[in-house]
Amino acid sequence: PEKGRSLVATRDFYPGEVIISQEPYVSVPNNSSVSAQKRCDGCYATTNALSRCSRCQVARYCGTACQRSEWKLHRLECEALSRLDKDKRKSVTPSIRLMVRLYLRRKLQNEKIILSTVMDNYHLVEALVSHMSDITEEQLVLYAQMANLVNSILQWPEINIKEIAENFSKFACNVHTICDSELRPVGTGLYPVISIINHSCLPNSVLVFEGRSALVRAMQHIPTGTEVCISFLLPDSKL
């Protein structure tokens, strides 16, 4: 009971087999104002030919295919970011942008512009644990400040500041660092179903990424009825 929710195998899985895969509900590349190497907002690739969104100057794309794949969400994001002055736009960190995109995607799903599915809906985000009662007062103040910044970007009169702050707390315990094949961080994503998988120091499965897609693969035979566990820690790249 103290572990909360978990993922349990309903059939046998064998080494290398994909147990579950999920696209992110929302994700952002690691493109902060101090990042030396910028990444495409669509595929997270690095290239010398990245083009900035001409209006907001925040999103970058490697080509028209990635730009089109992101357009439904970025159209609203672009409108919001474009209202900010240049200096304030620089203060939009990847985590702030991730939260803005969370609310914009919820809006698009509510309006049926982006379809909701069993593995892709805001109710899964609502079900995530925030651990708000465990965080320090200093952290609460920080979340409140970040929530106010998100509010100033979205400018929705009905938005709930307390809910945004709680969602930042959910991000702290539930988002995943998206890594490339060499385990280099390339972005951050929220995978609400995969987030219910618990940590183990002796995991029976591993979380890997193919682009932005998250896949949990078995590392050993996992019999029916066994809890699926991963390690929340990245391996040391020097080993």
Automatic annotation (TrEMBL):
Matching InterPro entries: H3K4_H4K5_MeTrfase (IPR050869), SET_dom (IPR001214), SET_dom_sf (IPR046341), Znf_MYND (IPR002893)
Designated name of the protein: Histone-lysine N-methyltransferase ASHR1
Keywords: Metal-binding, Zinc, Zinc-finger
Pfam families: SET, zf-MYND
Organism: Cajanus cajan (Pigeon pea)
GO cellular component, one term: nucleus
Residue intervals of the SET domain: 1-233
Gene Ontology molecular functions: zinc ion binding
UniProt domain MYND-type: residue ranges: 40-78
